[in-house]
Amino acid sequence: MVFSGLCSFCKRHKWKLATVSIVCTGGYVGYKCLRGWLEKYRDEQTTAQMESLRMLQSFETNMSTCNNMIISLLQEVRSAVNEQLNSKKITASLKSKPTNKVELWNELKIISFAQYLVVGYACSMLVVFLRVQMSILGGVMCHNNDSEIDPVISEDTEKKFLSIAQYNVTKGIAKFIEVAKRVVVSETDRYSLKHSLSHNELCGLLGTLQKQLLTSLLTIVDSSSSDDEQDMTPLINFMIDKDKATTTPTAEPQYQMLMDVTLDILESKECQYILKHTINGSFSQLSSIMTNGFLSASQSLSTANVPVARVIPLLSDVAHSVLGDNVVESYMVQELLSHNQLRLLSYNIFEAVAN
Fold first, then answer.
1. Is the dihedral of CA 168, 172, 178, 179 positive or negative?
2. φ, ψ at 252 (rounded to 5°)
3. E strand or H helix at 154
4. Could you read off the pLDDT of 298-314 as tens digits, one per residue?
5. Best exposed site among 47, 169, 209, 321 by fewest CB in 10 Å?
6. Are 332 and 124 in contact (CB under 8 A)?
7. E runs forming strands in the chain
8. Residue-by-residue DSSP string for 206-220
9. Beta bridge partners of 306
10. What are phi and psi of 99, to 5 degrees?
11. Tell me: the pLDDT tens digits for 23-68?
């Protein structure tokens, strides 16, 4: 009786029961699919986060290594500046009261202004170059670790690529110092040792020297280059030996690839903008140090004037405060090492090469 009633109920509502069955079955299947998709999505997110964390850890290690290289090579920059812009030797000669005292003081004038320029430019150029170089190399090494095939570069190629930074602190800076000295002679020749400068006049002169040096580099490197004073591309010629980088048809492909990528990045608009920004920041730091020294020498920034003869040791002290016995303690160097825009550029390079 119960069974016949149940059969009768099923016959009367068979379409409703079929619909309910289909909906329930579809819901169950949909639930299983959604659950599977969510689990897959969660696994993918976890993997991506772990990969991002691993990438960040590799990048931080790379930046730490780069910082050590920067500090080490800044010591070589200091040695080059002290050797080619040697004020101590002239100062020692002046103590013996020579007959050419005025000539020696004028030479000291050229050296002190050149030291100021070289420190501002050379430190910034070195830091930007090493950040780019180490980010490229770090990205390649990170890719090597992930690759199941042969490494992208060999150990010998790695060492050869790292060695190109030596040009920056040897031939590159030597050429740069020569240009800086010529610019200083041209712009300061009209100022005698007794000529007095106010703080504003001294700041204006230093700013003119900074811009005029870049203009001179544009002319020297390529007479057909743009006259835009914001163009930083001439500086690349003092950071890397472009002749060897671009004219080595017999070079091994791995090494040539690294050199091509380095040049492409250094010549990119983004890198040029950051190089300009770091240089301006460095000169801003140098200007602050100079202002403090000027205030100590004159007791006033607005009314007092200081003769050029007293500006000479002031500028030398500014240079030595940055490239002193302990470079790492220099506030300007610390600012360069922690430069946010340069760090972001480095990470973008590292990530792009690693992937």
1. negative
2. -65, 145
3. none
4. 776 777 788 999 999 99
5. 47
6. no
7. 196-198, 305-307
8. HHHHHHHHHHHHHHH
9. 197
10. -75, -25
11. 777 677 777 777 777 777 676 666 666 777 778 888 999 999 999 9
Angle of CA points 122, 126, 128, to nearest 5° = 120
Residue 105 CA to residue 101 CA, distance in Å, equals 6
Tokens of residue 73, six digits = 């090579």
Contact 205, 187 (CB under 8 A): yes
Quick one: 266 exposed, middle or buried, by C-beta within 10 A (0-12, 13-18, 19+)? buried
Name the token pair of 135.
């980010």
Average pLDDT, the chain: 84
The pair of three-digit structure tokens given for residue 52, joined into one six-digit string: 């991002």
Tokens (6 digits) for 299: 């007791």
- The encoded tokens of residue 238 equal 């003092």
The DSSP output letter for 100 is T
| pLDDT beyond 70 at 295 | yes
What tokens appear for 180 in the block?
Answer: 């800086």
Q: Which residue has the tokens 């699919």?
A: 33
Per residue in 271-283, pLDDT (tens digit) is 999 999 999 999 9
